[in-house]
Amino acid sequence: MRRDCAVVEILDTVLLLAIGIAAFTVVALSLLPLPVPATPPKVSLSAYIRGNYVFIEHMGGDALNFSLVEISVYIGGKAMPKPNLHEINRNGLWECGEFVRYPYSSNKTVSVLIVDRNNGFVLLHGNLKREERIYIGAPPPILVSSLRTNSTDEDLICYAPPVKNFSPKTFIYSWRLNGEPFTEVLLPFDTDSSSSAKDYSGNGYNAVVNGATWVSNGKIGGCYLFDGINDNIVVS
Fold this sequence. Notes:
This protein is mainly beta and 236 residues long. Among the domains are: 38-139, Immunoglobulin-like (Sandwich); 196-235, no CATH class. 13% of the residues lie in helices and 35% in strands. It is built from one helix and 19 strands. The protein has one helix spanning 2-31; strands at 43-50, 53-61, 64-65, 69-75, 78-80, 93-94, 99-103, 110-116, 121-128, 135-137, 142-145, 156-159, 176-177, 180-181, 196-197, 207-210, 213-215, 223-225, 232-235. The strands form seven sheets. Strands 7-2-1-10 form a four-stranded antiparallel β-sheet, with no helix packed on it. A hairpin with a 2-residue loop joins strand 1 and strand 2 (53-61). The protein is flat, with a radius of gyration of 27 Å.
């Protein structure tokens, strides 16, 4: 009889302990904020072969902390060291128009894997090979002169190669001469933001959005809607 009572007391204790833990869990979940799942950065990268180099270029979207970007490149099975970033703004961020490059003068396969170590997302991966697959990711634009003689009095024409499920209308072209931007301010309004509009000229004139609403269905890409009263975008 005493053994039965002891067993009952132990079961009661375990049951009360389980109820207490469950109650504490419910209270903790109701008071503590739930972790927000990480979202991948909205960025477009391209790896392509041009001349005697393999380029990996930021084609638009969110800036990346270059020190937290893992770039794994193998040429013919040989691991290549991470190169320096060809920067425009020199702020440690990998931004539109900036690139890394690797010497490439063979027909060996180039394997590319780019991972954002900040959140573990794979940003770009695939293989390249001269005369077989010359780019992965966003297609690089083709720049030609109007008379094909590359003289200084010709017009420059930029072509965006058509790709399935990709709209070349939303390409952002940041024109530069010897690394210096042609434009003072370049605001394509391509990023969904209620607070700022990115300047892609490289001059750093990011704009402050006051009240305007971003929408994705503009005439070409995104745009802002104004209320006609006091909404504005100010370039600083």
